[in-house]
């Protein structure tokens, strides 16, 4: 094959003025292909404008959703459907994302995640920092299901673990929550024996590799960037005070 192409390459070199020009041409073609691939990847990313709010029931997702949009406190109840709204970032009126608050009930959360996961630019996984020690296994189970999903792995949306209810004295710190989640996710990775099913219902043929084989799991091993913040949708002064969402708001600006 190489011998058959050599005469044509030699002729092309003569026409273009020598091997230097041909090298430049090859380099330009490589740059053009790289640029087209970059544009394709960026186009796919820019088409995903949703920020999904996930978490167990009573983690505070709906109040957090309301606070981000209006800044005001309002009474909430357990959601049985999704809520969505455009969230404008800082003073830039043209920069925005679509916040989508998904139900946290065990019988509904995967169903709604299936519906919106492909549009996710980022995911905010809300954790009840007060009830965390009691709910850690359930929190880790839900998070594990999200992290091994084929669509989430492929798109690798930015992930924020929002440790909510930090206004309560007994709230666990973001650092402790991260350590406990890594431990529980590592246990789940080891003990899952049945072939998992992705959120779209298709069998994967074996466990999705969460993290690096042969090493204890930590969040830095994931294909998406994972960050932890402490926040309070209620705020330290209760209904009349302001929420403590500054770290979350800065993160939203960064991932938009």
Automatic annotation (TrEMBL):
It holds the Pfam family SRPRB. The keyword Transmembrane helix applies. It is a single-pass membrane protein. Keywords: Endoplasmic reticulum, GTP-binding, Membrane, Nucleotide-binding, Receptor, Transmembrane, Transmembrane helix. GO terms for cellular component: endoplasmic reticulum membrane. PROSITE patterns: ARF (PS51417). CDD domains: SR_beta. One of its GO terms (molecular function) is GTP binding. It is found in: Endoplasmic reticulum membrane. The keyword Nucleotide-binding applies. The chain crosses the membrane at residues 20-38. Belongs to the SRP receptor beta subunit family. This is Signal recognition particle receptor subunit beta. The gene is Srprb.
């Amino acid at each position: 094959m190489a011998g058959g192409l050599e005469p044509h390459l030699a002729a092309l070199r003569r026409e273009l003025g020598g091997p230097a020009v041909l090298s430049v041409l090859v380099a330009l073609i490589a740059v053009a292909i790289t640029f087209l691939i970059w544009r394709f990847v960026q186009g796919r990313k820019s088409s995903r404008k949703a920020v999904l709010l996930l978490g167990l029931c009573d983690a505070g997702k709906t109040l957090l959703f309301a606070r981000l949009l209006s800044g005001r406190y309002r009474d909430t109840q357990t959601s049985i459907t999704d809520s969505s709204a455009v969230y404008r970032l800082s003073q830039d009126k043209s920069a925005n994302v679509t916040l989508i608050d998904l139900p946290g009930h065990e019988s509904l959360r995967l169903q709604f995640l299936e519906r919106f996961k492909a549009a996710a630019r980022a995911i905010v996984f809300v954790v009840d920092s007060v009830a965390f020690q009691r709910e850690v296994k359930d929190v880790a189970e839900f998070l594990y299901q999200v992290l091994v999903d084929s669509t989430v792995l492929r798109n690798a949306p930015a992930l924020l673990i929002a440790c909510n209810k930090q206004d309560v004295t007994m709230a666990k710190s973001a650092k402790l929550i991260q350590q406990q989640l890594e431990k529980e996710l590592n246990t789940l990775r080891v003990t899952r024996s049945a072939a998992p099913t992705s959120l779209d219902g298709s069998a994967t043929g074996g466990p999705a590799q969460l993290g690096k084989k042969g090493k204890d799991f930590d969040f830095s091993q994931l294909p998406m960037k994972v960050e932890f913040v402490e926040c309070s949708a209620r705020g330290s002064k209760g209904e009349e005070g302001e929420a403590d969402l500054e770290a979350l708001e800065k993160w939203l600006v960064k991932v938009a």
